[in-house]
Amino acid sequence: MSSIPTSGNSSLTLWQSLGRRSFGYWLIFPALFVILGLNLYPTIQGILTSFTNQSLIDPGHSVYVGLDNYLKLLKDPVFQVSLVHSLELTFFAVVLQVLLGLVMAHLLIQEVPGIHFFRSVAMITWVLPIIASVVMFRFMTLPNYGLINILLKDAGLGQVARNWFGDETYAFLLVLIMHLWRNVPFYSIAFMAAMQAIPADLYEAARIDGAGDWRQFWFITLPNLRYIILVMVVLHVTFTFNNFDFVYLSTGGGPVNATEVLPSYIYKQAWNGYALGYASAGGVIMLVILVVLVLICNKFIKGLSEQ
Asked: Residue 192 and residue 116: Cα distance in Å, rounded?
């Protein structure tokens, strides 16, 4: 005959359950405290600073100015150009990285002689420090001694040679190419891993039904890659929109603001113009735009996960 639990046993079980849960919270509390300290406090401080005229010249003296910094930003033509460049760079870089990553992943997944070597070296461009990548591109595009101009002159196209990073027409394109050169291999390895997880039976059944390579890719490969594609898009929308290194190290935002993006513009306002409150307002606008973009992407991811 089973025993009936007493109220004392029931309350003891409840306390044991609560104790186990609280123990887990205490384990993650140190890491949570560090994360909040390193992220939440600077974010709140930056938002508060954006409503003041605080300057690095006299950081101890600041006056509340309300929305003046934001209104001034929105009227600044250089800020408007920087915002457009940031959005354009983010859009074209992420879209092209996804497309080229899919192509490269399809090539790397083929079982042909020597493919293991190419898979091994595919990530070299991504693991290189950004400064090394930028210096390499700058040397390749030097007006007189750069590899690109030397090859053009040897091919009889000397009239095409130019100072590529100093040309308003091509500087932004070169910044975009540097993003692709660095990140496409990372996309390809992620997509290749997801492709290898797709059951081979699906492709065999499709071939039996007469589906060609394109229909197999469209109806089998791509649907199974939707989730990883959206995750990669969310990550790289954040990385690209926030990227400061490529532009600042290669062109500094020039020539004539041709490559100016929000991170480099805000950096100059803070450290060259000493306008910390004004720069903080630009950072808050960047934060709002990023939150909106990430929420849109996460909505798509949530919809896919529920299918």
From this structure: 13
Distance in angstroms (rounded) separating the CA atoms of residues 207 and 53 = 67
Give 205-212's long-range contacts (Cβ < 8 A, gap of 24+).
none
Radius of gyration for the alpha carbons in the chain, expressed in angstroms and rounded: 26
Does domain 68-305 sit in CATH 1.10.260.40?
Answer: no
Distance between CA atoms of residues 248 and 266, nearest Å: 12
What are the residue ranges spanned by the domains of the chain?
Answer: 1-49, 68-305
HEC string of the chain equals CCCCCCHHHHHHHHHHHHHHHHHHHHHHHHHHHHHHHHHHHHHHHHHHHCCECCECCCCCCCCECCCHHHHHHHHCHHHHHHHHHHHHHHHHHHHHHHHHHHHHHHHHCCCCCCHHHHHHHCCHHHHCCHHHHHHHHHHHCCCCCCHHHHHHHHCCCHHHCCCHHHCCCCHHHHHHHHHHHHHHHHHHHHHHHHHHCCCHHHHHHHHHCCCCHHHHHHHHHHHHHHHHHHHHHHHHHHHHHHCCHHHHHHCCCCCCCCCCCHHHHHHHHHHCCCEHHHHHHHHHHHHHHHHHHHHHHHHHHHHHHCC
pTM here is 0.84
What are the pLDDT digits (tens) for 16-61?
Answer: 565 666 777 777 888 888 888 788 888 899 999 999 999 888 877 8
140-150 exposure pattern, b = at least 16 Cβ within 10 A, e = fewer: bbeeeebebbe
